[in-house]
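Take the subject:
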Amino acid sequence: SFVSPNGLLLTNHHVARGQLQKNSTAEHDYIRDGFYAPAPEQEMKSPDLEVNVLVAMQDVTARVQSAAKGISDDAKALKARDAEIAAIEKESKDKTGLRSDVVSFYQGGEYWLYQYKAYTDVRLVFAPEQQAAFFGGDPDNFTYPRYDLDMALFRVYDNGKPLQTDNYLKWSAKGAASGELIFISGHPGSTERQDTVAELLVQRDVIGPAVTAYLQRRIATAQAFAAQGQEQARLVGSTIFGLQNSLKVYLGRAEALGDKAILAKKQSEEDDFRAKVAANPEWKKAYGSAWDTIAAAEEKVKPEVKAQFLRRTDSRLFTIALQIVQFVAEIKKPDGERLPQFHDAGLDSLNHQLLSPAPIYPSTEKLFMTSALKLAQEKLGKDDAYVQAILQGGDAEATVNSLVDGTKLADPAVRKSLIDGGEAAVAASTDPMIVAARRVDPIVRETNRRMRDTISSVLTPAGEKLGKARFLVYGKDAYPDATFTLRLSYGTVDGYPYNGTIAPPFTTFYGIYDRAASFGNKPPFDLTPKEAGGRDKLDLSTPLDFVSTGDIIGGNSGSPVVNREGDLVGLIFDGNIESLAGDFVYEGEKNRAVAVHSAGMIEGLRKIYGAGALADELEGKK
């Protein structure tokens, strides 16, 4: 959220962490030490960060759905829908210059065009040390009480000058109070509350275990590398952080789907929905087969999952190589016939990422790519087409070393020359990563085609049927599943019963010093030097973190919490462990959103970090 008239943007430290990592070196570790720019010229440019500000929304349901009307072949119908979506996005981009995304709601029951103004000159102003932002580490992640200053501040620039933001959130010095009504404005990533039971069972029995095994393997690989020394630990620190966070999410999802009460609730909801549709002959004829159609398609998902999580390289360089190989081929086609990631409406963002000057480290490229390909060899066999295309029967470690040492793709100028040179340049390239990507490309395309024609083409129209039926039966009493688009949630600042006692609505600075002392100030419960040194300056009774009944999910990180006057009173950074079931069902007794308190952020800026000028800007005092 914008929090000053001069383009100041508030988000979480863990959202900013990637940019801190990309700007860090062995000599300047901004994740470990934090960062503060007291003057504009000291603000740190972000190599590949893009800020998208929502400008407008438009209902395009009729246009998208009519594109497939009368087409009986599922694959052709999906292609027609996709082509129409691409046309809508391109028309919007050409007319307005805005990033334009068509988003599906209610399982295809509605389609909306979202238009965003994109900014790519984004500079870091402040971030505390990682340990201050993530006090308690992985053990405390997705728990509460918490004692984290999980915040960061960027400034958005336009034409080289700070963006003048007439619309920004005023800062509340006192912050949220217990029992107060609050609103959370943010971009929840994805939920599956309207999925059929058949879809949920495939998540529980097939997809979830595959994702969990994948995450556990990558974490073990990264941790073994980190144990080799301080610099190795720095290089993979952000990777471990992200993977551990994802693993905890999937373990929470697994626990939720293993809960008989939750599954019984979902089955009961589906039974009620199906019964209401079946009771109306017209509805039954139009929509009654959708559940069985989805269940049959989900059976086809199961055998694809193993290969999906094993046919990977976990390599940034190889991903870039494959993107370039596909880019030069796709860009020649009519927009509606391209792979979705290469539509005109998204090319600006894609180019921004492809040409990012962010560093790529050969040591970690070799580490993760070798690990991934060794596992693929073991589980899929050396004759698997994907494995063979990359390794060509060779030793995984030796081949990966040759690929990483021989490629020039770490240089953005080389990437640009290949993109600018088009198919001829890519076809003539002897860069080993490009050569390997050329061999892999047809395999990836065939896999995508099979998934699209046999699964997506069936699930999309069946989902649309359920979306339309849901409107007829229930209206819009239930909001659609999350889609990373802007949502407004509401709730109350309130504690909850846990562990045989009651969690308080707030924690204070008193708590972090007590918790550190209780663990002997040992990691991950150790204080940073600045926190230890600032103790006597702080009003320790100042609220630091708090919880509310707001309905959030992954993707809400960085969401502002506002009061009824619209003033900012907090910053979402996590949910409690009970909130992980929120992917499938919201339960208000114990599900809580965890936020940093606005008063705690100001107290920390002024008295721990000496950033009084920044605090003044936030509070409108300058």
